[in-house]
Request: fold
Amino acid sequence: DRSFEQQRYRASGLNLVTAAIVLWNTVYLERAIQGLVEAGKPVDGELLQFLSPLGWEHINLTGDYVWRQSRRLEDGKFRPLRMPAKP
Reply:
């Protein structure tokens, strides 16, 4: 349906998805930076102002999703960060 109301619903849905991605990325960026600091890696605080949580290439917006109950995390817990391999 191409009615104005349907277009508005779609735009609102897109705004909600975008906000969720930005929130998720912000939380994990903070965790990644903290993980680097804890691993003794140098983190230039001056460069942090140039980080952006708007990237979404790592998120698949299409397809089927299967949520495994066995992989459920406790409240307030996160998946482990993927740290880069040591050279």
